[in-house]
């Protein structure tokens, strides 16, 4: 590591620089290069299961970056950089194209469309977004309702701007989910105004609910409000069977989390799609509802 022993201050200085502005600048430059080098950015897919019968219901595409020096980086490291640097729309386009291509591959192999959700940064939403998405769907021949776009409400522009940008997609049948619900400035009133399709309950309100009545009351309220608005609910961060039981009791229809499956590669989804129906929540024991 850095310099030599006995020069601790220098070492600390370097470390601070590397983890701060210099690191961001370097990754920004590297990301611009990666966006033109196919293969460095890739997707993994986290399955979402139906709580009632444990069946695979859809998948969420999650981007990863195989950095030539730093190894595989999680989105928390580079998505904020892409948002700040204005490369986020390019990143989205690549994630969308890759995941629609994999989805087409699953369809070709199984005869079944597996709905795919792609994260869309609110910061990139503009008048060109709809054209880009519609062109990508046309390119793979994907039924538009087999795609969901997940948006967090944090950092969203004016609701009217958002609705204008998403209008052509919604009319085509693309589904919209509010991601990380409960963590941002999102209110149910605003979600109601948008008339979106899915509420993803953030894991803050999910993990540990079986031993936290305050939290389970909040989750209960979120599920009820979503249903009152005609929206479906997906619980994020389900990492133990007891929490899943509570969600089942609350009537939450879908669940995603490490208990059920970590994100996997495209072949992993193909395996899941081919296997027998999974154990239902009702049958789930303390050892979990899945592998
Ligand atoms: P998200 O959309 O809320 O995605 C769920 C995150 O929670 C994923 O982390 C997933 O691996 C993780 N997760 C799933 N199950 C569990 C669990 O049981 N416990 C815990 N502790 N975590 C769980 P990941 O892949 O690191 O993604 C983090 C965030 O990065 C995502 O949150 C999303 O906001 C963003 N992101 C990922 N891919 C993209 C992308 O292509 N574009 C944009 N704009 N953002 C993305
Ligand atoms: Mg998401
Ligand atoms: Mg989420
Ligand atoms: Mg979340």
What does the secondary structure layout of this molecule look like, with pairings?
Blueprint: H1 8-19, H2 21-34, E1 41-50, E2 56-67, E3 71-73, H3 75-85, H4 88-110, E4 116-119, H5 129-140, E5 147-152, H6 159-172, E6 175-181, H7 188-194, E7 198-201, H8 213-228, E8 232-235, H9 241-250, E9 254-255, H10 266-274
Parallel strand pairs: 2-4, 4-5, 5-6, 6-7, 7-8, 8-9
Antiparallel strand pairs: 1-2, 1-9, 2-3
Helix pairs in contact: 2-3, 4-5, 4-10, 5-6
Bound molecules: ligand C2E and magnesium ion (3 copies).
Order of helical and strand elements: HHEEEHHEHEHEHEHEHEH
Mean pLDDT over the full residue set: 88
First-residue to last-residue Cα separation: 40 Å
List of distinct ligands in this structure: ligand C2E, magnesium ion
Shape: globular
**How many strand segments?**
9
Structural class: alpha/beta
Low-confidence runs of at least 5 consecutive residues:
1-11, 276-291
Oligomer: single chain
**How many DSSP H or I helices?**
10
Largest beta-sheet details: 8 strands, mixed, barrel
Can you list the strand order of the major beta sheet?
A: 1-2-4-5-6-7-8-9
Q: Beta-strand percentage?
A: 15-25%
Rg on CA atoms, Å: 20 Å
Helix coverage percent = 40-55%
Organism: Actinoplanes ianthinogenes
Protein name: Diguanylate cyclase (GGDEF)-like protein
Domain EAL: 24-277
Give the gist of this structure.
The chain has 291 residues and is α/β, with parallel strands linked by helices. It is 44% helix and 18% strand.
């Amino acid at each position: 590591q850095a310099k030599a022993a006995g020069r601790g201050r220098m070492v600390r200085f370097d470390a601070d620089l590397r983890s701060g502005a210099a690191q961001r600048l370097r990754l920004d430059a590297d990301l611009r290069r990666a966006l033109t080098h196919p293969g460095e950015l890739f997707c993994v897919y986290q399955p979402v299961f139906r709580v009632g019968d444990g069946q695979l219901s859809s998948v969420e595409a999650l981007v990863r970056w195989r950095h030539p020096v730093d190894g595989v980086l999680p989105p928390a490291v580079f998505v904020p950089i892409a948002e700040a640097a204005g490369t986020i729309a390019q990143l989205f386009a690549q994630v969308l194209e890759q995941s629609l291509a994999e989805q087409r591959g699953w369809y070709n192999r199984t005869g079944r469309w597996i709905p795919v959700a792609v994260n869309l940064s609110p910061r990139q939403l503009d008048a060109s977004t709809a054209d880009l998405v519609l062109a990508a769907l046309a390119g793979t021949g994907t039924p538009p309702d087999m795609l969901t776009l997940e948006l967090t409400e944090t950092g969203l522009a004016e609701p009217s701007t958002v609705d204008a940008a998403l209008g052509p997609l919604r009319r085509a049948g693309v589904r919209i989910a509010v991601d990380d619900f409960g963590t941002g400035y999102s209110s149910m009133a605003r979600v109601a105004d948008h008339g979106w399709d899915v509420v993803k309950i953030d894991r803050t309100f999910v993990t540990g609910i079986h031993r936290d009545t305050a939290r389970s009351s909040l989750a209960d309220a979120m599920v009820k409000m979503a249903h009152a608005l005609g929206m479906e609910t997906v619980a994020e961060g389900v990492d133990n069977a007891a929490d899943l039981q509570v969600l089942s009791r609350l009537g939450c229809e879908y669940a995603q989390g490490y208990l059920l499956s970590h994100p996997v590669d495209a072949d992993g989804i193909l395996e899941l799609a081919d296997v027998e129906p999974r154990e239902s929540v009702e049958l789930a024991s303390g050892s979990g509802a899945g592998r």
